[in-house]
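Good morning C.,

I know you're traveling, so I'll keep this short. The sequence:
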Amino acid sequence: MKFRAEMTEILCMKQFANIIETLSKFTKLCVIRICEDKIYFIVLDDSCIGDHPLIWCVLEQANFFRRHCVVGLNENNNEIFLEFEPDMMAKSLNFLKSSQVAESLTIKLTNKQSPCLTFEVNLTSTTLGRMCVHDIPVTVVPHKQWRLFVQPEMPRFNVKIELPNLKLLRSVVERMKTLNTRVTIIASDNGELVFKVETMMADMATHFKNLSVLDKEAKDLSQTASVQVDIKKLLDFLTCEQLHPQNVTCNILNKKMADFYLVHDDFNLHFILPSVLA
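The tokens, ready to paste straight into the viewer:
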């Protein structure tokens, strides 16, 4: 198996580093699925419904890499699945977020006593060039386990609604975290979204109105759906504000799950939270 890819745009390097840093806040272990035209970051969670992952993030290789080459398991399975620690990778790439002297970033699958993803960063200065090399240990996922990391089939959601500004929403949910470990999300196809926590003494709710609704069916009566989720995991997702998404939607399957779908020009990300009451 072989993988080699090269970035030359500093904005792509920074965005890639931001994605890895965001993933590192969600999980200790992540799987990268490398295909000919796409790269997937996948995080499984035992509490998710059925075979749904917790996170499913898709990057178009052409949007990040100037050149890339993939030689997979064999001719019929031209893919590579690797498990890695996103925190270790994030720390290695952290300097890229503020660097203005990175000329290129090359990512290679190497074997240095054990499999590694090797990051080679060419740095330039007024006097000389130098290279910074980081080796991130990885574990090759055997073919028999690939089925665990296939793209999930999404159910027919009851309501799909746009989220308000993530930074604003995060400040709201942070205050709710002091009251309860769970938050109820209520969405209606008239454009209203409610985040609510309940305590022995009182209830607290924040209402957002006039939000865009997706796939709304024409009918006289509005439809409402709700789900109760882990508030800490929701806050983890809201750190995605640093990725500067174009839009984010909340898709609710009533009483079952919430799927937060983040869209950017260069990638998209699903973050799936099951109901804590399911």
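Safe travels,
E.
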